[in-house]
Specification:
Elements: H1 2-6, H2 13-33, H3 43-54, E1 64-65, H4 66-76, H5 82-92, E2 103-106, E3 124-127, H6 132-135, E4 145-147, E5 154-156, H7 165-169, E6 171-175, E7 178-182, H8 187-199, H9 205-211, E8 222-224, H10 226-235, E9 237-243, E10 245-251, E11 254-261, H11 268-281, E12 287-292, E13 301-305, H12 311-321, E14 325-331, E15 333-336, E16 339-342
Antiparallel strand pairs: 1-3, 2-3, 4-5, 6-7, 8-9, 9-14, 10-11, 11-13, 12-13, 15-16
């Protein structure tokens, strides 16, 4: 008993809390919320891709139940809740979230209106063709490996991605003390800029910006703010404006505002609802009806105007008071050598 008492140590609560929260924060930052600069992936995304690749669930083979993939990932590499894994898989399959879709999902994988996807037991999935470019040659000692959570298998610490995925698909994440918000960029432009950088290691940012003009969002829209883009490319932080792409049409002698593209990460149904509320509350005169005419042919939202309506006045009001126009803040934070860093292009 005397020996047991001697092994009891006393520490202040402040000291213990600080140390434990520090360890927790480090784990969250490095292993959950922020992407690795080398392959642009968070750990859960990397594990999803590798587990599906290892299970031969690739683009040239038949679809497999999403639940099977989730079970493999959770059992072998990612011992967290199945819902968090499936949510990540679904996002990786949504074309309106990234330029290069990682996963080809068969079934209801949600929508731009914020609809929930079908349960994992109903959907099927396989790797998209471009994901092969992230995993090719992984078995040829191209990357470092580490034990999985129970030391039964090895998993890659990074994927041998053939192109700068972090810029192409961007990333979003929040961790203890850090957040990242990296927009998507055009795949062809990023590859051309990479080749230019390899051929001319000392080339200036101006040269890169001649190739990569700015972000390229999967939902389209018009980007304004060249100064914000330049600041972001230089420092990793900057602010831009994204506005809907519209055109005007005439129908039965009355004009229509037609929305063809909407800003990134905007919920289409909520935006239409807000415009209709403005019509109902008569916050501005001139709108008679709002309709979401989106179909397989593409996005289309029609705003019918009265005969005597000033279309420019109505449009400017909607841009100012709805998500037809939003601001986007670059905050390009990624893991570099196991530490979070703010990076320019």
């Amino acid at each position: 008993m005397q020996e047991a008492v001697k092994r009891i140590y006393e520490y202040s609560l402040e000291e213990i809390l600080g140390e434990r929260f520090g360890d927790y924060s480090k784990e969250i930052i490095q292993d959950r919320a922020l992407p690795d600069v080398r392959d642009g992936l968070k750990p859960v995304q990397r594990r999803i891709l590798y587990a599906m690749y290892r299970d031969h669930n690739t683009y040239e083979r038949a679809y497999k139940k999403s639940a099977k993939a989730v079970g493999n990932i959770m059992g072998l590499y990612h011992p967290h809740g199945d819902s968090s894994i499936y949510d990540a898989m679904v996002r990786m399959s949504q074309w309106w979230k990234q330029n290069a879709v990682y996963i080809d999902m068969h079934g209801n994988n949600g929508s731009m209106d914020g609809d929930s996807p079908a349960a994992m037991r109903y959907t099927e999935a396989r790797l998209a063709k471009i994901s092969n470019e992230l995993l090719v040659d992984i078995d040829k000692e191209t990357v470092e490996w580490a034990p999985n959570y129970d030391d039964s298998l090895l998993e890659p610490t990074v994927l041998p991605a053939k192109f700068p995925l972090l810029l192409v698909n961007g990333s979003m994440g929040i961790s203890a003390g850090y957040a990242t918000n990296i927009p998507t960029h055009n795949l062809g432009e990023v590859i051309d800029a990479t080749i230019k950088r390899i051929d001319s290691p000392n080339c200036r940012l101006d040269t890169i910006m001649e190739i990569i003009k700015g972000p390229d969002f999967p939902t389209g829209g018009i980007v304004e703010g060249k100064k914000g883009i330049q600041e972001a490319f230089e420092t990793g932080r900057g602010r831009i404006i994204i506005r809907s792409k519209i055109h005007f049409e005439e129908k039965k002698g009355k004009e229509q505002i037609i929305i063809d593209e909407i800003p990134y990460e905007v919920n289409k149904a909520n935006m239409v609802r807000k415009i209709d509320e403005i019509r109902i509350d008569k916050k501005i005169e001139g709108i008679t009806e709002v309709r979401d005419e989106t179909s397989r042919e593409g996005l289309r939202i029609a705003i019918d105007l009265k005969k005597d309506a000033n279309r420019e006045l109505v449009l400017n009001y909607l841009l100012k008071n709805t998500e037809m126009q939003v601001s986007y803040n670059y905050n390009m934070v990624a893991i570099v050598n196991r530490r979070p860093m703010t990076l320019g292009v």
